[in-house]
Structures are given as structure tokens and as C-alpha cells.
Design brief:
Blueprint: E1 6-8, E2 20-23, E3 29-31, E4 41-45, H1 51-62, E5 71-76, H2 80-90, E6 97-101, H3 106-111, E7 118-122, E8 128-133, H4 140-145
Parallel strand pairs: 4-5, 5-6
Antiparallel strand pairs: 1-8, 2-3, 2-6, 4-7, 7-8
Length: 150
């Protein structure tokens, strides 16, 4: 189940900032500056216990094969244990999808998401294309990246 999200762009947040996140797969700190250019990036701020966020993540996972050229970072400020539980329950194990914990609140403080899911879509040069407050359908991401109507 997906919902149409509200969209807006901020001129201040046009490039992907350098942020420290903790990867669930290794419990190591990962800086977003290490994300290589060349593939689009989708950052999803979410709550592992939120029904809308669970449905949004399920939609991404269901279509992960058609999204193989997109780098997904699913981010939460919830305790690490909740994210680990979500990863195990949803069997999240994909090369192009990383679950991250915002232990230092760097993502939250930089992006100021008002809701979850909060989705930021960047092009292959790490330039922000658009943001969404709320869930989006599986066609929205490729349409935005390919310049098609949302």
C-alpha cells in the first residue's frame, strides 16, 4: 500500500551532505561522503514500528530487482536494537539497500524530517532531485530519476 506524498525542495539542501550513520550489518560508522557517485541515491528516514514506513520499505524490497542501479539508505533515530529486529523480521539483505542508525542525530538535524517516511532522492552526482513527506508508490522513484512525470 502506497500513498501520494507531498513534495518540496529546499535550495539549501541541494547536495548530499557528509553525515555519520551506523550500518546495521556491521555496527560500524559510515560517512555519506563515502557513497560513490555514478548511481542515484534514495535516503528514507523511517520508523521501524510505523505501519506507513513498513509498507514503504516493503514496496522498495518488492521492487528491489528493478531498483538495482539505485543506492538505498533507510535511516532511523530509533534504538539500534529496534532496527536490528526490523532487519531480521523483514529479512533485509540486499546489496543496494543499507539500514542505518542515526545515532548522532546528524541526518535528523541536517534534514529536519517532519514525518516518516521522509524520502530524499538524489541523482548520480549526489544532487537532490526532490523530497517527499509520506510514502510514495514504486513508480515515483524511477520516474523522477528519468525525468518523467511523477
Amino acid at each position: 500500500m502506497s500513498f501520494s506524498g507531498c513534495t518540496f525542495q529546499s535550495q539549501e539542501k541541494t547536495m548530499l551532505p557528509s553525515l555519520n550513520l551506523v550500518l546495521t550489518e556491521s555496527s560500524t560508522v559510515f560517512n555519506t561522503s563515502r557513497i560513490s557517485k555514478g548511481k542515484p541515491i534514495v535516503m528514507v528516514y523511517f520508523g521501524p514500528d510505523s505501519k506507513n514506513c513498513q509498507e514503504q520499505t516493503a514496496d522498495i524490497i518488492k521492487n528491489i530487482d528493478s531498483f538495482k542501479e539505485i543506492q538505498f539508505y533507510i535511516i532511523t533515530t530509533n534504538p539500534f536494537e529496534r532496527l536490528q529486529k526490523f532487519k531480521k523480521r523483514e529479512e533485509v539483505n540486499y546489496k543496494n539497500l543499507k539500514l542505518c542508525n542515526d545515532n548522532y542525530f546528524e541526518y535528523y538535524n541536517a534534514m529536519r524530517p517532519n514525518t516518516a517516511p521522509y524520502i530524499m532522492i538524489y541523482d548520480e552526482h549526489k544532487k537532490l532531485k526532490t523530497t517527499y513527506e509520506g510514502a510514495i508508490n514504486e513508480n515515483t522513484i524511477p520516474n523522477i530519476l528519468h525525468g518523467l512525470p511523477k
